[in-house]
Amino acid sequence: MPDGSTGEEMVIGFDASRNRRLLIVAPLFDEANKFRHQLSEIMRRLHAQGIDCFLPDLPGCNESMAPFADQSLAHWRACVTAAAANFSATDIFAIRSGCWLVPEDESGWLYAPAKPQQVLRSMIRARMLSAKEAGREETADRLMETARADGIELAGWPLGPQLVAELEGEQFDAPDEYIVIEQGEVGGKPLWLRAENDSDPGQADSIVSLIASGEESA
Amino acid sequence: MTAETAQAEATGPSRSDIDQTLRAILRDVLGLNLAQVDGFDADTGLFGHLPELDSMAVAGLLTEMEDRLDIVIEDEDVDGEMLENYGGLLTFAEAKVVES
Q1: Which of A157, A188, B1, B32 has CA 20 to 30 A from A82's CA?
Q2: Residue B44 lies in a domain
């Protein structure tokens, strides 16, 4: 909610009241769509490995009715913390930009964390490229000026000024309690780079095996 | 050691390294295998020729080029010519690597 409180959102989950309960934080923006299929592959495998898992919608994202333009990283962080408590999560698994949102006092896995400035830059570039195609000239400096003052629509996402400031200003460092999984350990082509959405069962197997073995030794 | 080899070392990654890195990025972006992307030549059309290569995918490709080639791509560098075909993109990448 804009006042900082959390509201109700939809969740996809496998809940059999097992000991291991994993909260999943999807990537933001375009990569949320690119990973949707792969996340369902990962969740099915977690369930088969005896791990409960929960993928809630962040406000403004996916099926959420909350306006995207009102969202901020700070608010999403509060929602992830609330979700971890709500589902009694034992661990958290976050992907790419979702890694920015994990609570520092929890533990889990961060898959190929993205850099906030890089994500913003890519979206600004995409907007400039499509403007160019349409015969309009937009410069990054001017777009950022507008974005800082009034927010901006980038790649179909209406970013509010607070979210723009957070993306521009924040550095991401993995909190101590989390294990970073890099693409090299997973193998295959990084799905977030793919122009056409795709899934990869082999990569899903690798990720789940890293999570499952990590939880057993924890 | 020939003079040619010495010069190649002094200017950082060789043209063939840049070519291989660029092909690897295109394999990741387009989801193609080694043989398919090895078949790309200078005239193989990219932005505006491959329907899946939309503005968001091109933006991702440019960011990945910056990361893997350790270059900075200025916004005014990005024009239709450099993105139109593989030859244009490779020439651009080579020039940027020399510059950096």
Answers
A1: A157
A2: yes
Q: Cβ separation of A118 and B63 shorter than 8 Å?
A: yes
**pLDDT score, position A157:** 94
Residue of A nearest to B74 (CA): A140
Residue A132 class from Cβ within 10 Å (0-12 exposed, 13-18 middle, 19+ buried)?
A: middle
ipTM of the complex: 0.80
Residue A126 and residue B31: Cβ atoms within 8 Å?
no
Reported pTM: 0.89
Q: What is the DSSP string of A80-99?
A: HHHHHHHTT-SEEEEEGGGG
More confident residue, B32 or A114: A114
* Smallest Cα distance from B78 to chain A, Å: 8
Hey, where are the domains in chain A?
1-114+173-218, 116-171
Does residue B4 fall inside a structural domain? Answer: no
Cβ distance of B58 and A129 shorter than 8 Å? yes
Domain at A1-114+173-218: CATH code? 3.40.50
**Which residue of chain B is at minimal alpha-carbon distance from A131?**
B55
- Output phi, psi for A119, to 5 deg: -65, -45
Output the domain CATH number for residue B24: 1.10.1200.10
How far apart (Å, rounded) are the C-alpha atoms in residues A204 and A41?
6
Q: How many domains does chain B fold into? A: 1
By Cβ distance, the residue of A123, A139, A195 closest to B57 is A195
